[in-house]
UniProtKB/TrEMBL annotation:
The organism's place on the tree of life at top rank: Bacteria
Organism: Streptomyces hokutonensis
A UniProt-annotated Pfam family: DUF7824
Domain DUF7824: 436-610
UniProt protein name: DUF6493 family protein
């Protein structure tokens, strides 16, 4: 080994630099093959291995020995050395003796790399100074410049002073307005509150270091170009900081119109305010104002729409001649999804339509009145001469989104190479139930057919897994880790790792046997019954891969929901009988829990075939298929503060003749059991739990209701994502399913509420939604404080927007009956606001679906004095229920 390579391997950077000084390009290139070999060697070294300390020195040596600009850049920005790079100062010293044109080429190539490459700004800026080349204005360079210059507060000066001293200020500032993802560094760039980018740009503009017109134009152009909300918010602050003059605002009228139409809400609101100010000062023509209104009233943001209606009202009150141009724009508001917006627009038309002499304008408004809800349309008949509501238009039919259909599982991949590709994809994404089950079955099948070929195909996939190493000590620690966890799988991916490690002989047989026999029964939580059933099957599969491979799995589902067709299970048992294969107990137990029993005719036919097999499993399957249909256990509610939970009784049929780890599925579900330890941090496991009992979703719902309640009570995120899958499962949806749904509808985060709405619509489309039960649950949870009415109103409004007005009204009439009964005396503002929102959604649904009748306790609220949202919407709902006119 040469002295240079010995120093590189030892990590002696100073010695390496000394050895490289004075060498010719040819002499340096001669070391490249050895350096590249060392680089390959370090890539496969386990994390934390002593040899990895050579990375920093290797990084510097390779940069010095690569004499081509492209090759040098590829080495410097290599992803495998990103976290162990040499310092920028060292690289600049090493490259300092190169030709200026070569350095310029390297500089611009480095700046052209994606920002994710992590190229040091100090390195790029140092090479710019060294080569004298023009400063790069690429996205990577500008982002790095913004981040770097904002972090130099240790120098004791301000960001403004640092920017003013920058010799490339004009070029980089011009590029700043065209660069994405710079808002983050701009936000936290300085330690002083007053020293930020907004203030610095404004002062540089006043001082003349930046041309004002060019800066203003660049800011507005950046807002027009769009981008992330964070970027838009940052550059909007810059625009505000420049304090535009009225002349500058007039120059950009067309831009403000475009921003009010299409920009993110914060930017659109600013553009709307500028245009509104111009309009009220008479500097925006009525035709331009109408053009603006056409765009803004089409937006979904109610705040923008309402602000536009207020603006139109002010303009019409000041200038009667503007009515002919402005009033037709209000026709867009007639079709808005919020009926309160419709009513405000109609009031404006009613107030100012007399100022218009044109019959064409009146006819246009009358035609647009067809979009109004029935109660408002009846008013438009009188004021605008709109066509009256006919009997043919009063028939309302609820249109629900189609319920998702279960998908047939494709067979396991035929070749080991295809299977390895699916394993790699599954490890990268954690996948879904069908993907996991296909891969699991594929591993079993190919291990049975040709174990050696399977192991070879999997080698590239598992080479970088945490448990894979040729170091005996590292392998011992990996086995010890599996041994200590036994069944404590925190994710399906971890279970897959056990199977792959078993195939690669990284887990001892004694560890697999112990894992199959022992469980962490002392560490229990509400999910333990579900996790033990899942883990027991995986541990048993792993053991059989080593000791007695199975030809295939009996429990692989037929459908994406986890259901297994009885005829398919009989066919599999028959194949086992012909092959003389021994059935795995956990695999067979899971197959029984998945087999479809809801179709009694198909179950009976399959039972007859199963009994004729003459095997113990065939007789057991026949008895299971002909037993009584699954029933729900007895349940009772228990309250823990504002949280309402369920307790379930015992299910004997899930305990009889099942392995010990599956019997817990039928044991009682208690609220105050031993819940002190829970390792189920991965939400993706819930979808696998649903596939354990695909015809008994209530048993799953009862065990996850505490998790789902946290999205409403504790503001956690993600636990409601399982609700659509719960709605797609089979089995009668009972108290637990609807309680989970109620918590999801009151979740803090929009994505959780949206998942709950999806689940609600699926249940409604399948004819399984119990609106009375759900509405009563929601009333109880709102009264206890577990669900905030404003959040619930957002969920209900989203559901109604899909066309499910009848279903939403069926829920809210029970919720509102309970909440309105509590109103007595003074009402707290927050309570009134949230309840007013719920009443608004209920009124809109009632108007659209033509609901009739009385709502208990509504009259006493509607008869209150005042014009608060609560009282106004109560009156509106009462009018809708009395009118009983369908959309």
């Amino acid at each position: 080994m040469s002295a240079l390579m010995e120093a590189v391997r030892a990590g002696r950077t100073a010695e390496v630099v000394g050895l490289l000084d004075g060498l010719t390009d040819a002499e340096r290139r001669a070391f490249l093959p050895e350096l590249k070999d060392l680089r390959k060697e370090l890539r496969t070294a386990p994390w934390g291995h002593p040899s990895r300390h050579a990375y920093s020195t290797l990084h510097a040596a390779g940069a010095a020995c690569e004499t081509g600009a492209a090759a040098a850049v590829s080495w410097i920005a290599g992803s495998d050395m990103r976290w162990s790079q040499s310092s920028a100062a060292l690289l600049i010293h090493i490259l300092g003796d190169r030709d200026a044109s070569w350095l310029a080429d390297v500089t611009h190539r480095l700046a052209g790399r994606p920002a994710s490459a992590g190229v040091s700004y100090e390195l790029m800026a140092g090479l710019v100074r060294l080569s004298g080349c023009p400063v790069p204005t690429t996205e990577t360079y500008v982002q790095a410049w913004v981040s770097h210059i904002g972090q130099l507060w240790q120098l004791g000066d301000t960001l403004f002073e640092r920017l003013r001293r920058d010799p490339h200020l004009a070029e980089l500032m011009a590029a700043l307005f065209e660069t994405n993802d710079v808002a983050g560094p701009m936000e936290w760039s300085s330690a002083e509150n007053v020293d930020g980018w907004v203030d610095a740009i404004a002062r540089l503009t006043v001082e003349g270091a930046l041309d004002r017109k060019r800066t203003v134009d660049a800011c507005v152009a950046r807002l027009l170009r769009g981008g992330s909300t964070l970027d838009q918010r940052a550059f909007l602050r810059v625009v505000k900081g420049l304090a535009l003059t009225r002349e500058e605002e007039r120059e950009h009228i067309a831009d403000w119109l475009a921003l009010a139409s299409d920009a993110v809400p914060t930017v659109a609101s600013y553009a709307q305010a500028v245009l509104g100010s111009l309009a009220l000062d008479g500097e925006l023509t009525p035709r331009r104002l109408a053009e603006m209104s056409d765009a803004v009233l089409f937006r979904s943001e109610k705040k923008l729409v309402r602000a536009q209606l207020v603006l139109l009202g002010k303009v019409l009150a000041r200038d009667a001649s503007a009515a002919a141009d402005v009033l037709p724009a209000l026709a867009f508001a007639f079709g808005h999804t919020d009926t309160e917006v419709q009513e405000r627009a109609l009031k404006l038309v009613e107030r100012h339509v007399k100022k218009v002499d044109s019959s064409e304008v009146r006819a246009e408004l009358a035609a647009a009145a067809d979009q109004l809800v029935p109660v408002l349309r009846a008013r438009a008949v009188e004021t605008l001469g709109a066509a009256p509501v006919t009997s043919t238009s009063t028939v309302y039919e609820e249109v629900l989104p189609p319920a998702p259909e279960p998908v047939r599982l494709a067979p396991a991949p035929e070749s080991a190479v295809e299977l390895a590709e699916e394993v790699g994809a599954l490890l990268a994404t954690e996948g879904d139930v069908p993907t996991f089950e296909r891969v699991l079955d594929g591993l079993v099948r190919h291990a049975y057919r040709d174990h050696k070929t399977l192991v070879e195909a999997l080698e590239p996939v598992v080479a970088r897994r945490w448990w894979h190493s040729d170091d005996p000590e590292y392998a011992r620690r990996a086995d010890d880790h599996f041994s200590r966890t036994h069944r404590a799988f925190g994710s399906a991916e971890y279970g897959l790792d056990l199977l792959l490690a078993t195939l690669q002989d990284k887990v001892r047989t004694v560890t697999l046997h112990e894992g199959m026999q022992d469980g962490h029964r002392s560490r229990t939580c509400g999910h333990s019954a579900l996790s033990r059933a899942f883990d027991a099957r995986v541990w048993e599969v792993a053991y059989r891969l080593r000791a007695e491979p199975l030809p295939f799995l009996l429990s692989t589902p037929s459908w994406s929901t986890g259901l297994l067709e009885p005829d398919e299970l009989v066919d599999r048992l028959d194949t086992y009988r012909r092959l003389g294969a021994r059935v795995s107990s956990a695999d067979f137990a899971q197959a029984l829990l998945r087999v479809r029993r809801g179709d009694r005719a198909a179950a009976a036919a399959a039972a007859e075939r199963a009994s004729s097999l003459g095997t113990t499993e065939g007789v057991r399957l026949a008895r299971w298929l002909t037993s009584e249909s699954p029933t729900l256990p007895l349940s009772r509610r228990r309250a823990s503060g504002p949280r309402v939970l369920l307790e379930f009784g015992e299910l004997l049929d899930v305990q009889e003749d099942f392995p010990a780890e599956f019997r817990t599925l039928g044991q009682p579900v208690t609220v105050y059991g031993n819940n002190w330890y829970c390792y189920h941090w991965n939400r993706d496991m819930q979808r696998h739990w649903l596939a354990i009992l695909p015809e008994r979703r209530e048993l799953i719902a009862a065990r996850i209701v505490r998790d789902v309640s946290a999205v409403a009570l504790d503001g956690t995120r993600g636990a409601a994502a399982v609700l659509p899958l719960l709605a797609e499962s089979d089995g009668a949806p009972g108290e637990a399913t609807h309680l989970c749904l109620a918590y999801g509808l009151g979740a803090r985060h929009p994505e959780d509420r949206l998942a709950a709405v999806d689940a609600l619509l699926v249940l409604a489309a399948r004819g399984q939604l119990d609106g009375d039960r759900l509405g009563t649950d929601l009333g109880q949870l709102v009264r206890s404080g577990a669900v905030k009415p404003s959040r619930l109103a957002e969920s209900m409004r989203t559901g109604a927007a899909t066309g499910a007005n009848t279903s939403i009204w069926g829920i809210l009439r029970h919720t509102l009956s309970a909440l309105l009964a509590d109103l007595d005396g003074d009402i707290k503002p927050a309570q009134a606001r949230g309840l007013g929102d719920l009443l608004a959604v209920a009124a809109e649904c009632a108007e659209r679906c033509g609901a009739r009748g009385e709502l208990p306790h509504l009259a006493q609220t509607a008869d209150r004095t005042g014009s608060s949202r609560l009282v106004t919407q109560a009156r509106r709902l009462r009018s809708a229920l009395v009118a009983g006119v369908a959309a």
